[in-house]
């Protein structure tokens, strides 16, 4: 995977509409902690464990329209969106906290998929369909 750079409000909204799980790293060029987090976000984006997550970064100074609308005032901040809605955020530069955020939401999604698969198999079985 790659960490996608967001350059406009349109790109930001497009990412949230097209991808069920989106992690946005809000950063600024002048922020030392943001520069430290960036390689970690990139590492996680390359991990198959988080392949269901669409990773983005947004420079709050370059895309002021988005940061102003969302009220982003402190850095670093990493925000998780599910189905277009903010579901979690981390206001810290602690790298372990970012990984915990990812695990929490990816594992929750995987559990939902497992439950849906189980129910689907049960319904098929009750209806007399042959399971493969």
UniProtKB/TrEMBL annotation:
Coiled coil: none annotated. Residues 1-111 form the Thioredoxin domain. It holds the Pfam family Thioredoxin. InterPro entries: Thioredoxin-like_sf (IPR036249), Thioredoxin_domain (IPR013766), Thioredoxin_H-type-like (IPR050620). PANTHER family: THIOREDOXIN, THIOREDOXIN-1-RELATED. This is Thioredoxin domain-containing protein. It comes from Fusarium oxysporum f. sp. radicis-cucumerinum.
């Amino acid at each position: 995977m790659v960490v996608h750079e967001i350059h406009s409000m349109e790109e930001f909204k497009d990412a949230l509409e097209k991808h069920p799980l989106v992690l946005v790293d809000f950063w600024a060029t002048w922020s030392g902690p943001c520069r430290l987090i960036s390689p970690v976000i990139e590492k996680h984006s390359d991990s198959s464990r988080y392949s269901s997550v669409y990773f983005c970064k947004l420079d709050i100074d370059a895309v002021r329209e988005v940061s102003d609308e969302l009220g982003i005032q402190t850095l670093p901040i990493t925000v998780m969106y599910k189905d277009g809605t903010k579901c979690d955020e981390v206001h810290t530069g602690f790298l372990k906290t970012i990984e915990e955020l990812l695990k929490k939401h990816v594992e929750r999604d995987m559990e939902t998929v497992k439950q849906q698969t189980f129910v689907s198999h049960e319904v098929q079985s009750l209806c007399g369909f042959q399971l493969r």
